[in-house]
Amino acid sequence: MTDAAKRPEGPAGLVEQVEGYLLWQVRVAEAEQRARAFTEPMQWLTTAQREEIEEHYVSDCLLRARADLQRVAERCRALRGEYEERYRQLRARCFAFALTALAVLAGAAVLVLAFARP
Questions:
Q1: What is the 3-state secondary structure (H, E, C) of 45-98?
Q2: Residue 44: C-alpha distances to residues 5, 34, 39 (Å)
Q3: How far is CA 94 from the centre of its chain?
Q4: Is the pTM of this model over 0.70?
Q5: How far, CA to CA in Å, does 52 sit from each of 9, 34, 58, 83, 110?
Q6: Which of 58, 71, 83, 116 is most buried per CB count within 10 Å?
């Protein structure tokens, strides 16, 4: 299943898409700014050389950012699965405890009624 298939539909999905786009644009702007800062002290570069170095720098930064984001997303999915499993286990234990408590109370009520009869 692809990431697009996992996205919620409707307004929630649209909000996620816009948020993702805006976050990525921030990454692009940061990479471009860092590339300019990297080439700034190299006054001997021609304009074409400067642009080529900045382009490679930005490309490398964005490849690394994409890989980082994919690792974070994979970890988030793994954690979600772990937490969902823990929640299922906790819910089952709570249900079992409530059922046991109800059985004990019912048994106590039967005993009280049995001993309360003359």
A1: CCHHHHHHHHHHHHHHHHHHHHHHHHHHHHHHHHHHHHHHHHHHHHHHHHHHHH
A2: 50, 19, 10
A3: 27
A4: no
A5: 41, 14, 10, 46, 86
A6: 58
Determine contact, residues 39/45, Cβ cutoff 8 Å: yes
Task: Identify the domain containing residue 95 by its residue range.
Answer: 3-116
How many domains does one find in the chain?
1
The whole-angstrom separation of Cα 105 and Cα 111 is 10
Nearest to 61 by CA among 17, 12, 104, 28: 28
Round to whole Å and give the CA distance between 77 and 38.
36
Task: Give the model confidence (pLDDT) of 66-102 as tens digits.
Answer: 999 999 999 999 999 999 999 999 999 999 999 999 9
4-19 mean pLDDT: 76
Burial of 62 (0-12, 13-18, 19+ CB in 10 A): middle
d(CA 7, CA 21): 14
